[in-house]
Every structure is written in C-alpha cells, then in structure tokens.
Amino acid sequence: MTGMITKDEPLEERIIRTKEIIKRLKKVFPNAQTALIHRNPLELLVATILSAQCTDVRVNKVTPILFRKYKSPKEYASADISELENEIKSTGFYHAKAKNIINCCKMLVEKYNGEVPTKIDELIKLPGVGRKTANVVLGGYFGIVSGIVIDTHVKRIAVRLGLSENADPEKIEIDLMGIVSKKNWIDFGDLLIWHGRNFCTAREPKCTDCPVSDLCPSAKLFF
Fold first, then answer.
1. What are phi and psi of 34, to 5 degrees?
2. Catalytic residue among 151, 175, 187, 190
3. Which of 1, 25, 30, 50 is the most buried (most CB within 10 A)?
4. Cα 93 to the chain's mean position, in Å?
5. CA-CA distance, 73 to 83, in Å (whole number)?
C-alpha cells in the first residue's frame, strides 16, 4: 500500500506539518542516530556499504570481527577477496560488497592518503558509495550537513506522510530538503528510520500507537 499523496497541500502548510512531525518524533526518539556500531569514519563507511539490503542488526554482528582484522584502508585494499566475501557473506550480496569495499579502500589509499573525504562530491566517487552512504558517513560521524539519508524506511515513510510522491531516492531527498530546515536534515533521516523500525513498519504499521498519526494522510488506510 503506497499511501495518500497530499498534492494539493500548500507548501507552507506542508512545512508546518513537517516541523510538528519532527518535534514529536524528537520527543519519542531523543537519541536517534545511526544504529551501525563504529569508532571512526572508515568503520562507518564499511558498515554502511554492508547495510545495503541488510539490517543494521546483522551488520553489527559481522563488523566486530571484521574491524579487528582490517584497521585501515590499506589493509582492506590488500585483502584477499575470497576471504572478505566469506567474512561478510551473511550480509547478502557479498560478491559485490567485497569488491566495492576493496576498490573503495584502494581509492582512499591512492587518492586520499588513506583518509575518508569529508565532501559529498568526493565520497560519491568512491566505488559502492552513493548519496545515502555518503550522507550517513558525513552526518553520522562528522556532523556535516550534506543532505538527508534516504533508506528504505525513509523512502516508505516520506510517501506515507505525503511529503513526497516520488519513488526515486534522489528525488525524495530533494523533496524533503525543500520542506525540512537544513539544521534538521541529519536528525530527520535518523528520526524517520527509528520511526520506521518502531511504528511505521512496512507490513503492519502501528497507526493506533503512532505519535504522528493525526498528521499522516495514510494513517486511516491501516486502521
């Protein structure tokens, strides 16, 4: 079920509604942030690559052993791809993920002196890194406002809340950046992700308990 799009809602009213959504979700999830366990930007970068089509819970079960073995881009860059594939196999799509991690870290070594870049235009040039991964790393570790993280939760909830009618993540991000104050871009992505895990789930959203159901044009579809 896709939800109801409030096409005729004036932009100003949508902005006001979004502010109230943010306000309420901050009360419910005051400590919302990425659930991927990490100690540095490289670990967050690798964990986010692994999180594609995989839960954060599963990634967090894999990364402790991985992070003990590989401590620098150079070590990932020289990794045996078969070994790395085996180590990350449970996260799914492990052939592509292992290849991307190795090639990404080769580029970090060759072009960025082993450092994770802090500009989104540079990050998205790395193999396996799109806007979502770049926004996670920049916002989650560096606190740099570069955009809004659009994962499966955010994509689903943005449509249900009538904040976007697009299916493409980049178009959804543009829609959201147009109605969310820039100072809240990092928080907004994290809040919707936590909301998606706890209330606005994919199959059976808990609309009767949802803190923003009265602000959601899709809520009545699930009652």
1. -60, 140
2. 151
3. 50
4. 18
5. 16
Per-residue burial over 101-118, b = 16 or more CB atoms within 10 Å of its CB, e = otherwise: bbebbbbbbeeeeeebbe
Pick from 46, 117, 58: nearest CA to 84: 46
Query: For the chain (length 223 residues), average pLDDT per consecutive 10?
Result: 59 96 98 96 98 95 97 98 98 98 98 97 97 97 97 96 95 97 97 97 94 91 60
151 included as an active-site residue: yes
Note whether 160 and 201 are within 8 A (CB). no
The one catalytic residue in 71, 89, 99, 132 is 132
Characterize 2-33 residue by residue with b for buried, 16 or more Cβ atoms within 10 angstroms of its Cβ, and e for exposed. Answer: ebbbbeeeeeeebeebbeebbebbeeebeebe
Q: Compute φ and ψ for 46, nearest 5 degrees.
A: -65, -45
Residue 127: what pLDDT? 97
In angstroms, the CA 215 to CA 134 distance is: 30
Is residue 168 among the annotated active site residues?
Answer: no
Please, which residues have CB within 8 angstroms of residue 61's CB and are 6 or more apart in sequence?
90
